[in-house]
Design a protein that fits this description.
The protein is an alpha+beta fold. It folds into two domains: 47 residues, Helicase, Ruva Protein, domain 3; 107 residues, Tetrahydropterin Synthase, Chain A (2-Layer Sandwich), CATH 3.30.479. Helix 1 crosses helix 3 and helix 2 crosses helix 3.
Length: 168
């Protein structure tokens, strides 16, 4: 099946994937943009899984202070290389994560850190399982996996802290 250039451009803007990957996904999906995007996301998850064992010794520390300065968050986001840590896409991800921490006040990165406290819920207390504040249809883990697929490196939230006036 022949795929037109406009469809490739649209999928590329939507997914951030390379031209050939977009073309292949469109061909495999019979020209269906939504299905092609789904295929690219699955491919990104597979790539992310392959890279998940790679060490993440580089990255950035991002701070977010909300509006009037009463709430703030700091997030350490790690990746494999210094080059990726300086990209706009990686910095935007770190900023979104810091904003998420400020807004949703998670206590842990993942449920594995809960220990024996049964009163905690992954969707509320674990950052990776929370719905993303800018798109409730995806979790923070989905957001990070999408970035791993686009960037091509392992990305890990190392730690975070949230501050709010009057809270301990």
């Amino acid at each position: 099946m022949s795929v037109n250039v406009d469809a490739i451009k649209a999928l590329r803007e939507l997914s951030g994937a390379g031209v050939m990957d977009c073309r292949t996904a469109l061909e495999d999906s019979g020209g269906d943009l939504e299905e092609a995007h789904k295929l690219l996301r699955e491919k990104g998850f597979e790539a992310a899984a392959k890279r998940s064992e790679k060490t993440t010794n580089e990255g950035i520390v991002e701070a977010y202070i909300h509006g009037t300065g009463r709430i703030g968050a700091i997030v350490e986001l790690n990746c494999e290389t210094d080059f990726v840590a300086r990209t706009d896409e990686f910095r935007a991800l770190a900023h979104d994560l810091a904003m998420q921490v400020a807004a949703m006040s998670p206590r842990y990165i993942s449920p594995e850190e809960f220990g024996s406290d049964d009163s905690l819920t992954p969707g509320q207390d674990a950052l990776l399982y929370q719905p993303f504040i800018k798109d409730q249809g995806q979790t923070i883990n989905d957001l990070i996996n999408d970035a791993r697929g686009k960037i091509g490196e392992n990305i890990q939230v190392k730690r975070f802290v949230r501050f709010a006036l009057g809270e301990e």
